[in-house]
Design a protein that fits this description.
Blueprint lengths: L1 E2 L19 E3 L8 E3 L10 H6 L4 E5 L20 H14 L3 E4 L20 H8 L7 E7 L7 H14 L4 E6 L4 H6 L7 H20 L4 E3 L8 E4 L11 E5 L3 H10 L2 E3 L8 H20 L6 E4 L1 E5 L3 H13 L3 H6 L11 H9 L6 E5 L1 H13 L4 E4 L4 H18 L5
Parallel strand pairs: 1-8, 4-5, 4-15, 5-6, 6-7, 7-10, 10-11, 11-12, 12-15, 13-14
Antiparallel strand pairs: 2-3, 8-9
Helix pairs in contact: 2-13, 4-6, 6-7, 7-8, 8-12, 12-13
């Protein structure tokens, strides 16, 4: 039996060696023995290695929540139901996409209001169900690892099981949660920002040890309330562990991602306007990758463009204008985020209405223009795009038929 008290300081001592593949400290935080936890990318035949070998990873951000990603009432097919999203995943897989994501949210009755009325499937359960309906695409579920239901033993066992069902195509987007209402729904006040990452580090250290330990494992973390006494998980993941993703932009979040993640889901520091984003992203992506390099680890960056594409530039811009013209004021008024607040004066209302389009960045144009924007994102240090659409099914089909061949011609897709 391995018995230890798992303790991970907020930052590792500078004297600790770099450790690819991943190594997790167990025991005293100064004199720390390590147990190897290999990354799935260290196995040449793993699904993770296959997708990370692409010049540009291609993903789809599923609309498993009402309203998808756009606060607009313009008519569309986009729907939060399982069958609709399963159809999108099949379509993406047929086009050769590498991975799909889904968000996780916990909201009171009425959600954010308007089209964001709160109806949403659970990310973990939805992606778990899709393991049996897919063959090649990697499935990445978003999980708030600090919220009430999760214990490291549950999490490690469930993820290892799904890793086997999917033949190594399982991934987790580890998030800590930030909206006060979500923490309150689970019975506590919102945890301070940086402390959330300290607690998540203890959680993920234990989970990785359960995936890697050949014997029973005991740990009593310094800060978290859960305990492990003689715990064991079998089967072990097929390729060391599932793909790990983190969505972040803060100092503490980037440090967390640098230590744990294979892929870092970033946002544009300059907002959604594409030219401003392209100017800001090289420095931002370099910062994220440098943080990982200090830990002896490579990471890939992923960003979420909202794609509005039509055969001609004029048609694409008319489509965007129609989405904005139908901006859903009900959603803006109740959205729990300063970035989406409905401010009141004309200029602020116009800016909020423009965000009806959705996505961290938006790219609008003909197939040639969209491909050119994606090429420029790649040159700015972006290793993958996690695409959203307004009307998902027809817009995804158009992207696959008209834009994807151009990305192959540009050398971004094998």
């Amino acid at each position: 039996m391995t018995q230890s008290t798992l303790a991970r300081p907020a930052s590792l001592p500078a004297s600790l060696p770099a450790s690819p593949p991943d190594r997790v400290p167990v025991g005293d935080p100064v004199h720390t023995p390590f147990v190897p936890v290999p990354s799935p990318a260290s196995f040449i035949d793993s699904p993770a290695s296959r997708i990370l070998a692409q010049p540009l990873m291609l993903g789809l951000f599923l609309p498993i929540q009402a309203g998808g990603w756009s606060a607009s009432t313009l008519p569309r097919t986009t729907d939060w139901s399982f069958d609709y999203n399963a159809g999108l995943v099949k379509q993406a897989e047929d086009f050769g996409f590498d991975l799909v994501f889904a968000l996780s949210q916990w909201l009171p009755k009425g959600g954010y209001g308007g089209v964001f009325d709160g109806h949403a499937l659970d990310s973990f359960m939805t992606l778990a169900a899709l393991t049996a309906r897919t063959e090649r695409i990697v499935l990445v579920a978003t999980s708030h690892v600090l919220y009430g239901p999760w214990h490291p033993l549950h999490f490690a066992k469930f993820c290892a099981t799904l890793d086997h069902i999917s033949n190594g195509r399982w991934g987790i987007n580890v998030v800590t949660g930030h909206r006060a209402v979500e923490h309150e729904m689970f019975g506590w006040q919102r945890i301070e920002h940086d402390r959330r990452y300290e607690l998540a580090a203890e959680f993920l250290d234990a989970v990785q040890q359960l995936w890697a330990q050949p014997d029973n494992f005991t740990c009593h973390p310094l800060q978290s309330s859960w305990r492990l006494n003689g715990a064991f998980v079998t089967p072990k993941p097929r390729y060391g562990r599932p793909l790990l993703v983190n969505a972040t932009g803060s100092d503490a979040g980037i440090e967390f991602a640098a230590r744990y993640s294979d892929v870092v889901f970033i946002t544009s520091p300059a907002g959604s306007e594409i030219e401003a984003a392209l100017a800001a992203l090289p420095e931002h992506t370099a910062r994220v990758k440098a943080a990982a390099a200090r830990h002896g680890r490579p990471v890939r960056t992923l960003i979420n463009p909202m794609v509005i594409c039509r055969e001609t530039p004029a048609e694409a811009r008319a489509y965007r204008d129609a989405i904005v013209a139908h901006g859903d004021e009900g959603s803006f008024q109740r959205f729990d985020s300063d970035a989406h607040a409905w401010r009141g004066n004309a200029a602020q209302r116009q800016a909020a209405a423009a965000r009806a389009v959705g996505g961290n960045i938006s790219i609008v144009g003909s197939p040639e223009e969209i491909a050119a924007y994606i090429v420029r994102l790649h040159r700015a240090g972006i290793d993958g795009v996690q695409l959203s659409f307004f009307d998902f099914e027809p817009d995804l089909r158009f992207f696959g038929e008209r834009v994807l061949p151009l990305l192959r011609e540009a050398g971004l897709r094998h």
